[in-house]
Write a structure and sequence with these properties.
The protein is mainly alpha-helical and about 130 residues long. It is built from six helices and two strands; from the N terminus they run αββααααα. The chain has one domain. A hairpin with a 5-residue loop joins strand 1 and strand 2.
Amino acid sequence: MARIEWVKQRLVVWAAWRSRRDSGGQGYPTQAAFTKLVVDSSGYREAWVSSVDDTEASLTDQAVQSLRADKPHLHRTVELIYLEDTGIRRAAVALCCAESTVKARLEQIDHEVATWLRNRQQAREQAERSFTT
């Protein structure tokens, strides 16, 4: 299983949105709210920029919160990595697991969030079809 790039990006935007929401929209973050610097193993750096859509971020928040009851280990992992910005190594220490486990959990999170969003979209489309017929 591999990470899903569009979900990763969506989680970055969600984390910025949550940070802004949790601080009441006040204060100054240490990093521009909508910029994330991505560095691959070759040292290549790329700035990823996105505007935040409150509706999209709210849906992502619902998807993440859906992990809380059934998959609390995934919920805690996403909080550490995205909201607390701990990084893989410190998250592994906090979770008392191997770094490879944190990476595997991030892959699981991507797939869980993607599935939740896809199921929600399908339900909305089905409701719209039944409403028009």
